[in-house]
Amino acid sequence: MVQDLFTKVRHDKKEQLFEFIKARRYVKTSDVIRWGLDNYHNRADRDARDLAGEGRIRRMNTEVKERIFGHLKEDVWETVEPKGQ
Hints:
The chain is mainly alpha-helical. Helix content is about 60%, strand content about 10%. Helix 1 packs across helix 3.
C-alpha cells in the first residue's frame, strides 16, 4: 500500500498555524505569511482561509480592525470563541 507522505504534514502545519493564531489572539495576514516562511510552509495564507471556512477563525470586522490597528488594508484574523463560553 502506498502512503501519501504529504497529507499528514499539511494537516500538522495547519494545526500549528491555528495554534499560532490562537496564542496571539489575532494576527495580520503578513504575520501568517511570515510564520509560513519561518516554518517552511508556503500554504500558510491558504490554510488560514481554510480555517476560516471551517469556522475556527474569522476575519476581524473593519471597525474593530481600525480601532486596534488604525487604517490597515490587509486582513486581520482572530480565533472564534466556542459556543457556550
